[in-house]
Amino acid sequence: MKKLVLILGVALSVLACNKTETSSKDFKTAYIDTAELIEKYEKFKDEDAKFNVKSEELGRPLEAKVRAFQAEAQSFRQNAQAKGPQWAQQKGAELQQREQQLGIEQNALIQQLQQEGAVLKDTLISEVKKFIKDYGKKKGYDYIYGTGDAATVLYAKDGYDITKEVLKELNDTYKATKKDDKVATKEEEKK
Predict the structure, then answer these.
(1) How far apart are CA 117 and CA 138, in angstroms?
(2) Which of 73, 76, 154, 178 has its CA 20 to 30 A from that of 21?
């Protein structure tokens, strides 16, 4: 009896696997190694090179200020004993203020470059996603998957998109929660 149940279980599993195989043949799928795509796409390389040049250009004035500060700090160390403790204290405070100001300028430059880099990266990624979507439509793919650093679905036929249904449920749930909060607030006000 146990053998019969085991044989039926194996037979059903084989049939289920066969059904999965035939239904998966109905879909045309592919994948893209996104890490390789980014690494080898010429536009990414060119834009990265342009961004590096821009970063160096923006950083040059700050580098000159830092070199001047370092030279002045070196001079301060050499003259501190010769000119006395009062001079050293005053000059040391001035150097400390300049050092803080340079740090602020450096942080602002870093933040500016990070923001510009993020915008550039987002723009390029959007362009690539649009290209992949158009490519998928043109070639008749149902799904195009992404592998590499960010594994995601890069393209799917509109018929498989459940975004609207999920969004409707989320919005309905949110509206219901919002109404419940308003009712609770009104009841608390009455008390």
Answers:
(1) 31
(2) 154
Residues 6+ apart with CB under 8 A from 154: 32, 34, 129, 132, 133, 136, 144, 145, 146
Structural domain includes residue 168: yes
Specify which residues 31 forms β-bridges with: 145
Q: What's the full length of the chain, in residues?
A: 191
Which pTM value belongs to this model? 0.59
Which range of residues forms the domain containing residue 187?
161-191
Whether residues 117 and 182 fall in one domain: no
Tokens in use for 171? 């919005």
Question: Which of 84-98 are b and which e, b meaning 16 or more Cβ less than 10 Å from the residue's Cβ?
Answer: eeeebeebeeeeeee
Taking only the tens place, the pLDDT of each residue in 26-78 is 778 888 877 777 888 888 888 899 999 999 999 999 999 999 989 888 888 88
